[in-house]
Amino acid sequence: MTAASPLKVLADAIRATADAAATGVLQVRARGAHPATAAHIGPDLVVAPLHALDRDEGLVVVRGEQTLDATVAGRDDTLDLALLRVPGLGASPLTLADDTADAAQLVVAVARSWQGDLMARLASITGQTCLLRRWRAEPLPALLRTDLQAGRGVSGGLLVDPDGRIQAWVTTGLSRGGVVGIPAGLLSDRVGRLSAHGRIRRGYVGMAVQPVLLPPAQQAHGRHGLLVSGVDADGPAAGAGVYVGDVLIAANGDALVEPGVLQGLLGESRIGSGLQLRVLRATTIHDIAVTVGERAR
Protein backbone atom coordinates (compact mmCIF):
# COMPACT_ATOMS: atom_id res chain seq x y z
CA MET A 1 0.00 0.00 0.00
CA THR A 2 1.43 3.38 -1.01
CA ALA A 3 2.15 5.70 1.91
CA ALA A 4 0.27 8.98 1.94
CA SER A 5 2.29 11.95 0.76
CA PRO A 6 3.51 14.39 3.43
CA LEU A 7 1.35 17.07 1.83
CA LYS A 8 -1.80 14.95 2.22
CA VAL A 9 -0.90 14.13 5.82
CA LEU A 10 -0.50 17.84 6.54
CA ALA A 11 -3.75 18.73 4.77
CA ASP A 12 -5.63 16.04 6.70
CA ALA A 13 -4.17 17.30 9.98
CA ILE A 14 -5.22 20.90 9.22
CA ARG A 15 -8.72 19.75 8.32
CA ALA A 16 -9.04 17.61 11.46
CA THR A 17 -7.81 20.41 13.71
CA ALA A 18 -10.22 22.91 12.16
CA ASP A 19 -13.15 20.50 12.37
CA ALA A 20 -12.47 19.86 16.06
CA ALA A 21 -12.50 23.61 16.80
CA ALA A 22 -15.46 24.41 14.53
CA THR A 23 -18.14 24.02 17.21
CA GLY A 24 -16.52 26.84 19.17
CA VAL A 25 -16.02 29.18 16.20
CA LEU A 26 -19.28 31.07 15.76
CA GLN A 27 -20.63 34.24 14.14
CA VAL A 28 -22.07 37.38 15.66
CA ARG A 29 -24.50 39.46 13.62
CA ALA A 30 -26.24 42.79 14.09
CA ARG A 31 -28.91 44.52 12.05
CA GLY A 32 -27.32 46.27 9.10
CA ALA A 33 -23.77 45.29 9.99
CA HIS A 34 -21.42 42.76 8.46
CA PRO A 35 -21.15 39.51 10.45
CA ALA A 36 -17.99 38.79 12.41
CA THR A 37 -16.28 35.69 13.71
CA ALA A 38 -16.71 35.03 17.43
CA ALA A 39 -15.34 32.41 19.81
CA HIS A 40 -17.26 30.43 22.43
CA ILE A 41 -14.95 30.94 25.38
CA GLY A 42 -16.94 30.09 28.52
CA PRO A 43 -20.38 29.04 29.79
CA ASP A 44 -22.80 31.17 27.74
CA LEU A 45 -19.91 33.52 26.92
CA VAL A 46 -18.54 34.58 23.54
CA VAL A 47 -15.71 36.96 22.60
CA ALA A 48 -16.01 39.07 19.46
CA PRO A 49 -13.95 41.90 17.93
CA LEU A 50 -15.13 45.18 19.39
CA HIS A 51 -14.47 47.08 16.17
CA ALA A 52 -17.00 44.86 14.36
CA LEU A 53 -19.89 45.80 16.66
CA ASP A 54 -21.56 49.14 15.98
CA ARG A 55 -24.39 48.70 18.50
CA ASP A 56 -25.42 46.87 21.64
CA GLU A 57 -28.96 46.01 20.58
CA GLY A 58 -30.16 43.40 18.15
CA LEU A 59 -27.08 41.17 18.44
CA VAL A 60 -27.40 37.48 17.65
CA VAL A 61 -24.88 34.65 17.72
CA VAL A 62 -25.15 31.99 15.06
CA ARG A 63 -24.06 28.40 15.68
CA GLY A 64 -24.86 26.18 12.72
CA GLU A 65 -28.62 26.43 12.19
CA GLN A 66 -29.14 27.90 15.66
CA THR A 67 -29.57 31.64 16.25
CA LEU A 68 -29.36 32.96 19.81
CA ASP A 69 -29.87 36.45 21.22
CA ALA A 70 -26.75 38.05 22.68
CA THR A 71 -26.09 41.00 24.97
CA VAL A 72 -22.84 42.87 25.60
CA ALA A 73 -21.46 41.81 28.99
CA GLY A 74 -18.35 44.00 28.83
CA ARG A 75 -15.79 45.74 26.65
CA ASP A 76 -12.03 46.02 26.67
CA ASP A 77 -11.03 48.61 24.07
CA THR A 78 -7.33 48.08 24.77
CA LEU A 79 -7.67 44.56 23.32
CA ASP A 80 -10.45 45.29 20.80
CA LEU A 81 -12.52 42.71 22.67
CA ALA A 82 -16.24 42.52 23.43
CA LEU A 83 -17.61 39.89 25.79
CA LEU A 84 -21.11 38.71 24.89
CA ARG A 85 -23.50 36.80 27.11
CA VAL A 86 -25.57 34.27 25.15
CA PRO A 87 -28.19 32.45 27.25
CA GLY A 88 -28.64 28.88 26.11
CA LEU A 89 -25.26 28.58 24.43
CA GLY A 90 -23.94 26.24 27.10
CA ALA A 91 -20.40 25.40 28.16
CA SER A 92 -17.45 26.11 25.90
CA PRO A 93 -16.10 23.22 23.81
CA LEU A 94 -12.69 24.91 23.54
CA THR A 95 -9.61 24.37 25.67
CA LEU A 96 -7.28 27.30 26.26
CA ALA A 97 -3.55 26.62 26.28
CA ASP A 98 -1.82 27.16 29.61
CA ASP A 99 1.53 28.03 28.05
CA THR A 100 2.57 30.68 25.52
CA ALA A 101 3.59 29.62 22.04
CA ASP A 102 7.13 30.30 20.90
CA ALA A 103 8.16 31.98 17.67
CA ALA A 104 7.84 29.65 14.65
CA GLN A 105 5.05 27.66 16.34
CA LEU A 106 2.76 26.27 13.64
CA VAL A 107 -0.96 26.68 14.28
CA VAL A 108 -4.22 26.38 12.40
CA ALA A 109 -6.10 29.66 12.03
CA VAL A 110 -9.86 29.04 12.16
CA ALA A 111 -12.55 31.64 11.43
CA ARG A 112 -15.88 32.13 9.62
CA SER A 113 -16.48 33.83 6.29
CA TRP A 114 -19.26 36.39 6.00
CA GLN A 115 -21.40 33.59 4.57
CA GLY A 116 -20.76 31.55 7.71
CA ASP A 117 -18.49 28.94 6.11
CA LEU A 118 -15.58 27.62 8.13
CA MET A 119 -12.20 28.99 7.00
CA ALA A 120 -8.95 27.29 7.98
CA ARG A 121 -5.31 27.68 7.00
CA LEU A 122 -1.90 26.78 8.31
CA ALA A 123 -0.28 29.77 9.99
CA SER A 124 2.76 30.59 12.04
CA ILE A 125 3.33 32.60 15.19
CA THR A 126 6.29 34.71 14.14
CA GLY A 127 7.13 36.34 17.47
CA GLN A 128 5.83 38.82 20.01
CA THR A 129 4.91 42.48 19.81
CA CYS A 130 6.51 45.08 22.01
CA LEU A 131 4.58 46.07 25.13
CA LEU A 132 1.47 48.04 24.21
CA ARG A 133 0.68 51.17 26.16
CA ARG A 134 -2.68 52.87 25.82
CA TRP A 135 -3.66 56.22 27.32
CA ARG A 136 -5.18 55.81 30.80
CA ALA A 137 -4.74 52.03 30.69
CA GLU A 138 -2.36 49.59 32.27
CA PRO A 139 0.44 48.38 29.96
CA LEU A 140 -0.38 45.15 28.17
CA PRO A 141 1.85 42.10 28.01
CA ALA A 142 3.35 41.30 24.63
CA LEU A 143 0.87 39.98 22.07
CA LEU A 144 1.59 37.38 19.38
CA ARG A 145 2.62 38.32 15.85
CA THR A 146 1.32 36.11 13.05
CA ASP A 147 1.84 35.70 9.30
CA LEU A 148 -1.91 35.98 8.68
CA GLN A 149 -3.26 38.59 6.28
CA ALA A 150 -6.19 40.79 7.22
CA GLY A 151 -9.41 39.85 5.47
CA ARG A 152 -13.13 39.38 5.93
CA GLY A 153 -13.93 37.23 8.93
CA VAL A 154 -10.35 36.91 10.19
CA SER A 155 -10.88 39.08 13.29
CA GLY A 156 -12.44 37.05 16.08
CA GLY A 157 -10.90 33.79 14.88
CA LEU A 158 -8.63 31.41 16.76
CA LEU A 159 -5.13 30.00 16.53
CA VAL A 160 -5.25 26.29 17.37
CA ASP A 161 -2.06 24.40 18.16
CA PRO A 162 -1.26 20.78 17.12
CA ASP A 163 -2.70 19.52 20.42
CA GLY A 164 -6.06 21.13 19.68
CA ARG A 165 -5.62 23.87 22.31
CA ILE A 166 -6.41 27.53 21.70
CA GLN A 167 -3.17 29.49 21.69
CA ALA A 168 -4.71 32.85 20.84
CA TRP A 169 -7.74 34.83 19.75
CA VAL A 170 -6.93 37.13 16.82
CA THR A 171 -7.88 40.63 15.77
CA THR A 172 -6.95 43.19 13.14
CA GLY A 173 -8.05 46.05 15.41
CA LEU A 174 -4.74 46.59 17.22
CA SER A 175 -2.23 46.72 14.37
CA ARG A 176 -2.64 48.58 11.10
CA GLY A 177 -2.74 46.01 8.35
CA GLY A 178 -1.65 43.22 10.67
CA VAL A 179 -3.27 40.36 12.55
CA VAL A 180 -2.17 39.92 16.16
CA GLY A 181 -3.06 37.20 18.63
CA ILE A 182 -4.25 37.75 22.20
CA PRO A 183 -2.52 34.90 24.10
CA ALA A 184 -4.81 32.43 25.83
CA GLY A 185 -3.67 33.45 29.33
CA LEU A 186 -4.35 37.14 28.73
CA LEU A 187 -7.67 36.32 27.07
CA SER A 188 -8.74 34.24 30.07
CA ASP A 189 -7.79 37.07 32.45
CA ARG A 190 -9.79 39.65 30.50
CA VAL A 191 -12.85 37.39 30.15
CA GLY A 192 -12.84 36.79 33.90
CA ARG A 193 -12.61 40.50 34.70
CA LEU A 194 -15.27 41.52 32.19
CA SER A 195 -17.60 38.76 33.33
CA ALA A 196 -17.26 39.89 36.95
CA HIS A 197 -17.42 43.68 36.52
CA GLY A 198 -18.59 44.43 32.97
CA ARG A 199 -15.44 46.46 32.35
CA ILE A 200 -11.72 46.51 33.06
CA ARG A 201 -11.35 48.28 36.41
CA ARG A 202 -8.37 50.62 36.64
CA GLY A 203 -6.71 52.44 39.47
CA TYR A 204 -6.85 56.21 39.84
CA VAL A 205 -4.74 58.70 41.77
CA GLY A 206 -5.95 61.95 40.20
CA MET A 207 -2.80 63.44 38.71
CA ALA A 208 -1.68 64.63 35.29
CA VAL A 209 2.04 64.04 34.80
CA GLN A 210 4.68 64.50 32.15
CA PRO A 211 8.33 63.43 31.90
CA VAL A 212 10.87 66.01 32.98
CA LEU A 213 14.67 66.28 32.96
CA LEU A 214 15.69 67.90 36.22
CA PRO A 215 18.17 70.78 36.29
CA PRO A 216 21.56 70.16 37.95
CA ALA A 217 20.49 71.78 41.23
CA GLN A 218 17.77 69.15 41.68
CA GLN A 219 19.68 66.06 40.52
CA ALA A 220 20.75 64.79 43.94
CA HIS A 221 18.10 62.04 43.69
CA GLY A 222 18.24 61.41 39.93
CA ARG A 223 18.03 63.21 36.62
CA HIS A 224 14.53 62.18 35.55
CA GLY A 225 11.05 62.23 37.04
CA LEU A 226 7.40 63.00 36.36
CA LEU A 227 6.30 66.60 36.75
CA VAL A 228 2.82 66.92 38.26
CA SER A 229 1.05 69.32 35.90
CA GLY A 230 -2.46 68.86 37.25
CA VAL A 231 -4.18 67.51 40.37
CA ASP A 232 -7.83 66.55 40.76
CA ALA A 233 -8.98 68.51 43.82
CA ASP A 234 -11.17 65.59 44.91
CA GLY A 235 -8.71 62.80 44.00
CA PRO A 236 -6.50 60.60 46.17
CA ALA A 237 -3.28 62.48 45.33
CA ALA A 238 -4.68 65.84 46.44
CA GLY A 239 -5.98 64.30 49.65
CA ALA A 240 -2.52 62.89 50.38
CA GLY A 241 -0.79 66.24 49.86
CA VAL A 242 0.56 66.13 46.29
CA TYR A 243 0.75 69.54 44.59
CA VAL A 244 1.12 70.88 41.07
CA GLY A 245 4.82 71.43 40.46
CA ASP A 246 5.92 68.40 42.49
CA VAL A 247 8.20 65.93 40.72
CA LEU A 248 7.54 62.23 41.25
CA ILE A 249 10.86 60.40 41.53
CA ALA A 250 9.67 56.89 42.41
CA ALA A 251 6.57 54.87 43.28
CA ASN A 252 6.78 51.74 45.43
CA GLY A 253 10.52 51.81 44.80
CA ASP A 254 10.24 51.93 41.00
CA ALA A 255 11.94 54.89 39.31
CA LEU A 256 9.43 57.04 37.42
CA VAL A 257 11.08 58.02 34.16
CA GLU A 258 7.94 58.00 31.98
CA PRO A 259 4.16 57.94 32.63
CA GLY A 260 3.77 54.30 31.57
CA VAL A 261 5.67 53.17 34.66
CA LEU A 262 3.13 54.89 36.90
CA GLN A 263 0.23 53.50 34.86
CA GLY A 264 1.70 50.03 35.28
CA LEU A 265 1.27 50.42 39.04
CA LEU A 266 -2.43 51.26 38.77
CA GLY A 267 -3.90 47.93 37.72
CA GLU A 268 -7.10 46.53 39.16
CA SER A 269 -5.29 44.69 41.95
CA ARG A 270 -3.98 48.02 43.30
CA ILE A 271 -7.42 49.56 43.89
CA GLY A 272 -7.78 50.29 47.60
CA SER A 273 -4.11 49.71 48.36
CA GLY A 274 -1.35 52.18 49.14
CA LEU A 275 1.10 53.67 46.65
CA GLN A 276 4.30 55.00 48.21
CA LEU A 277 5.43 58.07 46.28
CA ARG A 278 8.84 59.69 46.56
CA VAL A 279 8.24 63.33 45.71
CA LEU A 280 10.77 66.08 45.00
CA ARG A 281 9.52 69.52 46.03
CA ALA A 282 12.11 72.16 45.16
CA THR A 283 15.20 70.39 46.56
CA THR A 284 13.50 68.48 49.37
CA ILE A 285 12.33 64.86 49.21
CA HIS A 286 8.94 63.92 50.68
CA ASP A 287 7.56 60.40 51.05
CA ILE A 288 3.81 60.46 50.50
CA ALA A 289 1.38 57.54 50.78
CA VAL A 290 -1.55 57.67 48.35
CA THR A 291 -4.48 55.24 48.51
CA VAL A 292 -5.32 54.17 44.95
CA GLY A 293 -8.93 54.80 43.99
CA GLU A 294 -10.96 53.42 41.09
CA ARG A 295 -11.23 55.32 37.83
CA ALA A 296 -14.80 56.33 37.06
CA ARG A 297 -16.58 54.67 34.13
TrEMBL record:
SMART domains: PDZ. Keywords: Hydrolase, Protease. One of its GO terms (molecular function) is serine-type endopeptidase activity. PROSITE patterns: PDZ. Its EC number is 3.4.21.107. One of its GO terms (biological process) is proteolysis. This is Putative periplasmic serine endoprotease DegP-like. It comes from Luteitalea pratensis.
